[in-house]
Amino acid sequence: MKVGFLQTLPIFGKKDKNVDNTVALIKKLDANLIVLPELFNTGYQFISKSETLSLAEKIPEGETIRALIDIAKEKKLFIVAGIAEREDKHCYNSAVLVGHNGFIGCYRKLHLFRDEKKWFEPGSKGPGVFDIGNVKVGMMICFDWFFPEVARYLALKGADIICHPANLILPYCPQAMVTRCIENRVFAITANRVGIEKRSEESLTFIGTSQILGTKGEILCRASIDKEDAMVVEIDPGSARDKQITPLNHIFNDRQIKFVSNE
Ligand code: ACM
To answer: Residue 98's domain spans which residues?
Structure first.
């Protein structure tokens, strides 16, 4: 299976341009699954709730999802993309999965980072795991990486590949995701953006470093910190089903939850 990411440089608020540029890049790729950054169509640094409401879209009716479904049909591939979702007066920082048969699923970010808490509400459901052919994919969004239970939850639900749209600012995630993959024996695709946004007093620099990781934490490919990029690698997603670390150690069966859970 060929899996990849786009590392893009969205311009805040220019949704048509951001979507058109991304679709043009997807057209050139040869892949079965592509992951796009968090909020890839709108940009990141919202400055008011009304602005967020005006840029967010209904899922799955919104125009961004329509454009993604069209290119997924044309290229016969699956796409995971981060977009701002609107439902009535509520906004969510969401990720969608679409394929050649249309819309498949959505995940609303649970762990909102800093000012996101002013514009978005957190999701109220655990992330789903979806079948794409024989492969199971799960989605988490950016700062969810800081909460290892999210990747564990997805792995326990059977995800072979964790798709991780991101707009990373802190530097730790690319290394931390290596551990998420080792401890869960899953593949992970982190699609981050590059560039700087300064729509308020504060300037935000996104760290790029999008990457695809193997089930033992191998860095199968990693992009630069500051350039747009597209990378695709071939993986065997079935290898994520082997959770046996030694003949006597199984990642999930060996857990001793009753002694180490504070819940
Ligand atoms: C983030 O969650 N966008 C840092």
So the answer is: 2-260
